[in-house]
Amino acid sequence: MAPRQSATAPGTPMSLARSRPRHGEQVIKAILLVAALVSVATTIGIVVSLLEPTIRFFGQISAVEFFTSTQWGPLFEPPHYGVLPLVSATLITTGIAIVVAVPLGLGAAVYLSEYARPRVRKICKPVLEVLAGIPTVVFGFFALSFVTPLLRGILPFEIEIFNALCAGLVVGFMIIPIVASLSEDAMTAVPSGLREGSYALGASRMITSLRVVLPAAFSGIVAAVILAISRGAGETMIVYIAGGGQPNFTLDLGKAMQTMAAFIAQAGSGDVPIGTVDYNTIFAVGSLLFVMTFAMNYVSARLVRKYREVYE
Description:
Elements: H1 13-19, H2 23-60, H3 63-68, E1 72-73, E2 80-81, H4 84-115, H5 118-130, H6 136-154, H7 164-188, H8 192-200, H9 205-216, H10 218-233, H11 237-242, H12 260-268, H13 277-307
Antiparallel strand pairs: 1-2
Membrane topology: Multi-pass membrane protein
Organism: Nonomuraea cavernae
Subcellular location: Cell membrane; Membrane
């Protein structure tokens, strides 16, 4: 019997089609490469723009004073350049925000992924994500005009008009969609076979969600939480409006505080002469905030790679 001719033999139409250059595909690759290079170039540009003024700042101000002093007042006489009040305020408001956002966000993600019907999920998830599109200045005035009076009326301790507690709570509500949406995506990507195996062993839906789905989606959930932390640490308008502009080094949540982002907004919108030490403080604080968020993103990437589950 004569050998059967291959469908991809030279000279056949299919072979000619495969060897024909695909110019459209090359154009798409070039566009994607340019997009990636723009992201890298933007990051490098941010570092370069922060580096020179920061170096000039530390050429005039001691790094020991900057990182250890608890008094911050570069625009007053005599000036003080201790950044610890700004760092502590940033960590406190971000911590409050995470305490609010992680339980509510994970609860919403578990419901949407494991309990909600497809029709309910199609309605609830876009409504939840609308929260991420609300301008932060609206959140700030909402915190100042509604949340602060509410807290002052129900809490037993004294709360000032501008306070860290209100700012942290509202920042937490703002980042709920980040935790909920990304965590729900991670849990939805868990293979259904794991759920079916758990149900076959007699586990309830809650046990399956908590002991099977959540551990399997752990890397994606960690990435969502770290991204939410970075977003909360860099939030400006909410803490600028509701948190006040007083750099107090205190743990009293009812007092006004000033975060690093709030100081950058305040100093950048003022009449600080360009090239002065006061002007360079903006870049020094911005560099520190950049390093902090970069470190959190690096830790997030390491955790995601370490705990990533690969399913076939």
